[in-house]
Specification:
single chain, 3 domains, five-stranded antiparallel β-sheet, globular, D-amino Acid Aminotransferase, Chain A, domain 1, alpha+beta, 6 helices, 309 residues
């Protein structure tokens, strides 16, 4: 049985689960953890879902990490609060299960990379070996000195909200107007780039371009309205495929979604999300992406391995 760690509002999970049904699937929505019953002990573990479905150490055959996130932000006071404590306890339990499955080769596609997480700093430095990379600065104290002049965009490093339900998006930035005591990730603006995303699935590359960004006079990273219908498949040349695969080999990831801008005929690297959303690029399954992801998950589930408790 495939254990899918996600949340109740993840549309990608909604699309994948029916395709994984032949192997048996158990969905755990972390934001509804109170609806589940579970017990972990020296004898093993058992989890029961609201609909009565169960999974245990004897039946788990694959672990697929989607988006186990609490999407409703809470205001945690300085001294803490019971709800935040509960959430962190639940995260710790299932992070532990994920790590145990990874150690035993039961994580499908999304697994911890050797050498630790590839955060922005590591990604940007590595990417320069494979792609053009816009000038960038991670700065605090004097952003105007680090990145003088105009032509910059600001992007956050994490998904941490800055207010109740408020997340900052990529936007134009004037370094001289930024609060100097805050940390900033600034990147040189790329004018007229065509937004391109590439989903890497264990060596296979599925590339798409955003139609509405083609020929745009502004940096497409600040395009906020995106519809799945705006994206269309696009080819990559052999050198681009080799660069994507080389980058992923260095990071030790089996899955990831790249954000690029195609400018001057070249793919300009922005970032790689090792567990990025992707199903909206293949909503009806006609583009092969959903099938490719499900095939990798089912291969682990049908390998005959079981969790050694």
């Amino acid at each position: 049985m495939v254990f899918v760690a996600t949340c109740s509002q993840d549309r990608t999970s909604d699309l994948l689960l029916p395709r994984l049904a032949p192997a048996g699937v158990f969905r755990f929505d972390i934001d509804r953890f109170r609806d589940y019953v579970w017990d972990f002990s020296p004898a093993g573990f058992r989890i029961r879902a609201p609909d009565g479905a169960e999974i245990s150490d004897r039946t788990l055959s694959a672990f697929y990490l989607r988006k186990p996130m609490f999407l409703d932000a809470i205001d945690v006071p300085r001294g803490g609060c019971p709800e935040n404590w509960c959430r962190e306890e639940v995260r710790d339990v299932f992070e532990g299960l994920y790590r145990e499955c990874a150690a035993q080769g039961l994580c499908a596609l999304v697994r911890p990379a050797r050498g630790g997480p590839w955060r922005k700093l590591r990604q940007m430095r590595l990417a320069a070996r494979f792609f053009p990379v816009p000038e960038w600065h991670l700065c605090c104290g004097a952003p105007a000195e680090a990145a003088p002049g105009g032509g910059w965009v600001f992007k956050t490093l994490t998904q941490t909200p800055i207010g109740p339900g408020v997340h900052p998006f990529v936007r134009d930035a004037d370094p001289a107007a930024l609060a100097p005591r805050n940390p900033w990730f600034l990147q040189r603006k790329v004018a007229g780039g065509e937004e391109t995303t590439v989903v890497f699935v264990r060596g296979r590359c599925f590339a798409f371009r955003l139609r509405s960004s083609a020929g745009s006079p502004v940096d497409s990273r600040i395009v906020s309205a995106r519809s799945p219908d705006d994206w269309e498949p696009v080819g990559l040349d052999p050198n681009e495929l080799a660069a994507v695969r080389g980058f992923m080999a260095e990071t030790d990831h089996d899955f990831g979604r790249f954000d690029f801008l195609r400018a001057g005929g070249r793919l300009v690297f922005l970032e790689m999300n090792p567990n990025g959303q992707f199903a909206w690029l293949d909503l009806d399954g006609s583009r092969g992406l959903l099938d490719a992801v499900c095939a990798e998950i089912l291969a682990v589930a049908r390998s005959g391995r079981r969790l050694a408790w």
